[in-house]
Amino acid sequence: MFANFAARRHLTGPLRAVSPVAENDSEIDWKGASKRAKKSISKKSLPIASDNSRKLSGYFERVFEGSLPLARLTFKESLQLAFVEAVSLFIPMLYISFVFLVSTASIVFFSEPMVENLLEARYLEATYWACPAVLLLGLLYILMRPLFGGFKSYHGRVLQKHEAPALISLVNELSRHLNVVPPKKIEINNETALRVDAYSGVNSIYRDEYKIVIGAPLLMGMSVNQIAAMIAHELSHFRDKKKKVAFYLVHHVSEWLYFRATGQDKFHQKLLKRMQKEGLSKFEYVELWVWQRIHLVQQSSFACMFSLHRRLTAWKSREIEIETDSAAISLVGSEEFAGMLKMLRLIQGSQAAVSKQNDWAWKEGYLLDDYALSVALEANKTTALLDKLFEKDATKEVTRFCPSDSVRLECAGKLNSKGVLTAKVPASMLLENSRDLSKELTLLDYVSTGIKDALSHCVPSEKIRQLQLRKEKLNKLAYRYFDGRIESRVLRFEPTEERDVSQFDIQSSIDYIRRYRVEDRKYQASSGNLLKRIHKAYVIQRLIQSKLPLKKHLGNEVLAKGESDAYLEHMRAQYQQALYHMEALDQVFYQRAFVALNYLDISARGQVLTAFSNLEYYSQVRREVSAIEEAYNPLSLIVNGLHNGVSTRILQAGVTEKQQVWRLLHMLRDRLRGKPVKVSLNRRYIHILEYFDIKLGELPSESQDMTVEEVAEYVSKLLQLLSFQYHKWQSQVALVMSQFETKNGVAPVNLLH
Predict the structure, then answer these.
(1) DSSP output for 240-261
(2) Distances (CA, A) of 218 to 159, 223, 234, 237
């Protein structure tokens, strides 16, 4: 299959609300969007299909003559299918039977004495036996909860017939050619996948009631042949009833086991939030400890069952995938199928780059207006490197249930089919107004994920690309102007008390910087190493205070408990000594820029004054920023450790670190509140705290209103935004000042440039 529950999405943007592909599908109201689309369509007359759509539809009717013969199942294949079906049914039943057997035996064990005592009017003794019986009933309820709850559903905007007549014709003709029931509906979203999903509940798959969900980036970046190959592959799963039942039973059971093994359910999320409560009483702590142990045992059981099920059934799933590939290859040919597979991986990889680009643009107040087209354009940029990029990951398995791309290509080569479909035209021609539809999908994603007035932020990808190129040039310029001092820390960009330095002109400042440049580089290298050691020692200290096992979180490179405090103090003293020398030179850089500022004309001064002032104000809160960076390290470590097994002690340690970070956050906000730090967002200047609230949401007044993970995510994004704005101010200052120095014949710091 071209999508699987266990396959990771190619999404890297840290802001979920920014990405057109939400990590949690429930965040996007696709059903509501589909209803609104239908409602709007009913009020107006439907447009007539374009000439291209009519030509393509006629072509599909001609090319798919007759039907593709279906090979009969052999006795061996029937036994194999029966085996994987039996395994898929047996493993869940094994869990159910075990739970019922143990629970029933335990309840009978406690209930018999309880009934005997009740009959003999010994009510106190009966109560003693009744309490464990009631607890066991509660335990039975907990253990049976995973049996209920739906599967992850994939939604998109429903495509109406007038919007994609050629695409609907292609799907219908392929269904007829492959002897399968056409899908109930076709949906489109901004994922880079094409999948078949149940129309209404899992059981609808077995009634041949299903829907096809197509990713818009595929339609914008692939050819008709390639999209047809993907659709034919998915439809081929429905050609043989026995194979269909076996295939989807294997996948649904695997999906169910996987999500239960990873604790992705509402009950587990509620439990985690309760475990992160501040000021737990002893009773609550014991209660949550018991609940957590039960849940861990439950997860471990499902993990073992998932592993067993995968070992016993994945081989057959891979065989079925290869067989369905052959149907697609017979239609488009071996060469086109190989091209489709390579283009699919290229588009999926391009999605990561575009999501990252969109995330960066949102920091500037812009959003891509056409996400799918941007992904397709990004993929086309690297088409020349297609074979090289594909070969790098071709042998890797996306999931155990699907063969690797190299295996699929090898099988395609052996078939050596020419195919019958020769429509080497862009797949976007299958849609009537592909650009408008793609833009509508992108805007729908933004609005559905909480971005207000999203349309006003949308710009073409070309503008964002130009902004990025300009940013890269400015970063190089800033690196040169500040002589490489812009990466690791916030500079002390403020006036010096040293009388001689305060009398420097521009060239004198540069000569002084050049004179102490080698010595300064030594201090920079030393301070970088010291800072890493300080952060590590601080983490050790915090873990010791929380009574957490050091080796579990940090490995073998840990200090003895008695040495951590003294070591940390020693490292900080050394760092402060190096910092003293570096900050003294920082002030020379300030003197250089300050003198130039006074010589600038009104126009140039207006361009740089805000950025210059921001650097001054931000320099005054550098210690608060540094403290947050330091405090974030143990919090991040604890949050990452949660993925390896949640415990009440770890979460309570996270609560302690959360409170520490929370205090530092409010200290920083209080300091910034009194400083007129203005940042540009969507062509207007706002205070930096307002900027944070827009980008990250308003910070609650109490720490208990946010979980440990939410605070860690907030701080991570806050530090990213601070770094982004800081380097932006430096670039703006460097641009204007460099131009002034060049115009006036001032020799730069690095004469080699």
Answers:
(1) SHHHHHHHHHHHHHHHHHHHHH
(2) 15, 9, 15, 21
| Predicted confidence (pLDDT) at residue 613 exceeds the cutoff of 50 | yes
Task: List the Cα angle 745/751/753 in 5-degree steps.
Answer: 95
Q: Which residues, listed in sequence order, are joined to residue 185 by a DSSP beta bridge?
A: 211
Q: Which two tokens stand for residue 144?
A: 């049976």
Q: DSSP letter for 722, please.
A: H
Distance of CA 737 to the CA centre of its chain: 39
Q: Are strands 210-215 and 185-189 parallel, antiparallel or unpaired?
A: parallel
Contacts (Cβ under 8 Å, ≥6 apart) of 164: 186, 430, 431, 432
Taking the C-alpha atoms of residue 265 and residue 271, their distance in angstroms, rounded to an integer, is 10
CB-CB contact of 510 with 749 (8 Å): yes
Could you report the per-residue pLDDT of 576-589, keeping only the tens digit for each? 999 999 999 999 99
Strand residues in 550-677 grouped as ranges (E): none
Percent of the chain with pLDDT over 70: 84
Three-state SS for 679-711 is EEECCEEEEHHHHHHHHHCCCCCCHHHCCHHHH
pLDDT tops 70 at residue 57: yes
Q: Pairing state of beta strands 185-189 and 194-198? A: unpaired
Determine the length of the chain. 753
Residue type, 234: E
* Tokens found for residue 214: 């197509």
Instruction: Give the Cβ contact number of residue 26 at 10 Å.
Output: 10
The two structure tokens encoding residue 511:
């000569």
Token pair 């990025």: residue: 468
DSSP-derived secondary structure for 305-374: HHHHHHHHHHHHHHHHHHHHHHHHHHHH-HHHHHHHHHHHHHHHHHHHHHHHHHHHHHHTT-EES-HHHH
Q: Quick: pLDDT tens for 695-744.
A: 888 888 787 778 888 888 999 999 999 999 999 999 999 999 999 999 99
Which tens digits make up the pLDDT trace of 265-285?
666 666 666 666 666 677 776
Question: Which stretch of 174-183, 292-301, 371-380, 527-536 has the lowest confidence by average pLDDT?
Answer: 292-301
Is the distance from CB of 212 to CB of 234 less than 8 angstroms? yes
Burial 276-299 (b: 16+ CB within 10 A, else e): bbeebeeeeeeebeebbeebeebb
Give CA–CA dist 310/303, Å, rounded.
10
Partners of 212 in beta bridges: 186, 196
First-to-last CA distance in the chain?
A: 54
Q: How many CA atoms lie within 13 A of 149 on its CB side?
A: 17
Alpha-helix residue ranges (DSSP H) falling in 43-74: 51-63
pLDDT in tens, 387-424: 665 666 666 666 778 888 888 888 888 888 888 888 88
Sheet holding 157-158, edge to edge: 157-158, 185-189, 210-215, 194-198
State the residue for tokens 């075990």: 98
Beta pairing, strands 367-368 & 210-215: unpaired
Highest mean predicted confidence (pLDDT) among 501-510, 534-543, 616-625: 616-625
**What are residue 91's phi and psi, to 5 degrees?**
-65, -50
Q: What's the confidence (pLDDT) of residue 698?
A: 86
* Cβ–Cβ < 8 Å for 208, 311: no
**C-alpha 213 chain-centroid distance:** 20
- CA 655 and chain centroid, separation: 24
Q: How far apart are CA 340 and CA 194, in angstroms?
A: 12
pTM for the full model? 0.80
Q: Is the pLDDT of residue 485 over 60?
A: yes
Integer Cα distance of 275 and 204 in angstroms = 39
